[in-house]
Amino acid sequence: MTRKPINLDDYVEGVLAGTRSWVGRAITLVESTRPDHRALAQQLLAALAPHAGRARRVGITGVPGVGKSTFIDALGVRLTGAGRRVAVLAVDPSSTRTGGSILGDKTRMSRLANDPAAFVRPSPTVGTLGGVAKATREAMVVVEAAGYDVVLIETTGVGQSETAVAEMVDSFLLLALARTGDQLQGIKKGVVELADVITVNKADGPHAREALMAARELAGALRLLHGADPGRLPPVLTCSALDGTGLDQVWDRLVEHQDALAATGELAQRRRNQQIRWMWDMVRAGLLDELRDEPAVIATAEQVEQKLRTDAITPSQAAELVLDAFRHRSTTTSRN
Ligand code: GDP
Fold first, then answer.
1. Is the CB–ligand 1 distance for residue 238 below 6 Å?
2. What is the ipTM of this complex?
3. Angle formed by the axes of helices 8-16 and 35-48, to 10°?
């Protein structure tokens, strides 16, 4: 099937007009790894960037089953009911392995997926965490340029995905479950440190009391953890994504967090620092791609891997040989 050539102006106009189908198409373009698409995607992002950046960006994490999709569905519908336009994106590197995207799946957020003021996009499935995170960051530019003023980015605790998401949002929300005793054990420590707001979900019915106790215990544990810097303590709340209790309060705290950052100029600073780190991420990824594509490097790598297997050389000697092969690569070969 021959396809019409891509007309970038159509994309820019469509996205800026907030037309859902164009937003979807634009994200598909930025997710594409085809070199000709990459070039077009960069032009598209450059045209959209001046119109982006005005949304509240919130990351949401928690173990599978904690209620993330139920929470996002319920919160999202409240926000659109209050006149906001909500985009839901996801970073789920595991979806690249299973072949299907789990997070952000439309069937998991049925109300929001059918809400004309919302846009739900599953996690991109483009290989590494770095690739998935990059595609999601770029999708964020698209949805913001399209006028979505709340961007919720969902992630599981797979690999370093929380850190990747924390790097692209203003505020990070951790959903937790009520488990007494070892509150911090069930949650990866690094994730607690990333959280700006924590809420114990499923605080309903017979579990309401238990959730409240768990929240208190968690808050106490956090005081110990943060010790010296109590000003940075994330608030710990309880909520029920199922019946809606406490959702407004969770949102209020997220808004407070972002507004406090904005008032001191920290928000702009944080976003600028994120941009700089993203740039270096991309430089690193680009260099690695180039290195891996280099025939001299491929040949050397095979040899040094063999030597490593027989303990003939040390890993640092091996690394030096691979880097040397890259440094001394032939630059006269034509590149396309
Ligand atoms: P996710 O894997 O984190 O996205 O979790 P889901 O949103 O799919 O929820 C997992 C299960 O927990 C589902 O059966 C939900 O109905 C249930 N659930 C989610 N939120 C709540 C809640 O606030 N209270 C109760 N009782 N159940 C909930």
1. no
2. 0.99
3. 40
